[in-house]
TrEMBL record:
GO terms for molecular function: ribosome binding; RNA binding; translation elongation factor activity; translation initiation factor activity. InterPro entries: IF5A-like (IPR001884), IF5A-like_N (IPR048670), IF5A_C (IPR020189), NA-bd_OB-fold (IPR012340), Rib_uL2_dom2 (IPR014722), Trans_elong_IF5A_hypusine_site (IPR019769), Translation_prot_SH3-like_sf (IPR008991). Residues 84-155 form the Translation initiation factor 5A C-terminal domain. GO terms for biological process: positive regulation of translational elongation; positive regulation of translational termination. eIF-5A seems to be the only eukaryotic protein to have a hypusine residue which is a post-translational modification of a lysine by the addition of a butylamino group. The keyword Iron-sulfur does not apply. The lineage of its organism: Eukaryota, Sar, Stramenopiles, Ochrophyta, Bacillariophyta. This is Eukaryotic translation initiation factor 5A. It is found in: Plastid, Chloroplast. Translation factor that promotes translation elongation and termination, particularly upon ribosome stalling at specific amino acid sequence contexts. Binds between the exit (E) and peptidyl (P) site of the ribosome and promotes rescue of stalled ribosome: specifically required for efficient translation of polyproline-containing peptides as well as other motifs that stall the ribosome. Acts as ribosome quality control (RQC) cofactor by joining the RQC complex to facilitate peptidyl transfer during CAT tailing step. It comes from the Eukaryota. One of its GO terms (cellular component) is chloroplast.
Length: 159
C-alpha cells in the first residue's frame, strides 16, 4: 500500500456555520437564525412568565442579505441558533458587464465568485459609478454567513 491510498481530499475542521445559544442570551444588534435565514436583531420584547413558567422572547429582525423583516417568539430558556458572521475587505479589480466582480485582498488572493449586490437597490449602481470614476481604488466589504457571501458596503480609497 502506498501513501496515495490515504490521501486527504480536503481539510475541514468540522466547524459549524451556526452555534447554539439560549434565546434569553441574544441581544439587540446581535444575530440569530429565523426560518433558516441569518438575521440581525432589531428589537426584543420579553413577556412575563405565564402559568406554565416560561418567559417568552419576541424577536424582530432583518435578513442580513435581503433586508426582509422576520419575527420569532421563543421561550427565553429554550435554545436557538446564532449564525457565525464574517466580514472582510476586498479591492475591486474588475466588474464585468453582467455584474460579476473580480476582487483581491491584502494578501493578493483573488475572489471571482461574487456579483454586485441586489440589496439595497442602489448599492450596485453606486459601486459601479465609483469604479467607473477611475483614479481611486474601490474597496468593498463582503459579509458571509451560513455559506452565503454578499457585498454589503463600499468605500473609495485615495491612491
Amino acid at each position: 500500500m502506498s501513501d496515495d491510498d490515504y490521501a486527504i481530499e480536503s481539510t475541514d475542521a468540522g466547524a459549524s456555520a451556526t452555534i447554539p445559544m439560549e434565546a434569553g442570551q441574544i441581544k439587540k444588534g446581535g444575530h440569530m437564525m429565523i426560518k433558516g435565514k441569518p438575521c440581525k436583531v432589531l428589537s426584543i420584547s420579553v413577556s412575563k412568565t405565564g402559568k406554565h413558567g416560561h418567559a417568552k422572547c419576541n424577536f424582530l429582525a432583518t435578513d442580513i442579505f435581503t433586508g426582509k423583516k422576520y419575527e420569532d417568539m421563543i421561550p427565553s430558556t429554550h435554545g436557538t441558533t446564532v449564525p457565525i458572521v464574517n466580514r472582510s475587505d476586498w479591492e475591486i479589480i474588475d466588474i464585468d458587464d453582467d455584474g460579476a466582480l473580480t476582487l483581491m485582498d491584502e494578501g493578493g488572493n483573488q475572489k471571482t465568485d461574487l456579483n454586485l449586490p441586489t440589496f439595497p437597490d442602489t448599492l450596485a449602481d453606486e459601486i459601479r459609478d465609483a469604479w467607473n470614476g477611475g483614479e481611486n481604488s474601490v474597496m468593498v466589504t463582503v459579509q458571509g454567513a451560513v455559506g452565503i457571501e454578499q457585498v454589503i458596503a463600499y468605500k473609495k480609497e485615495s491612491s
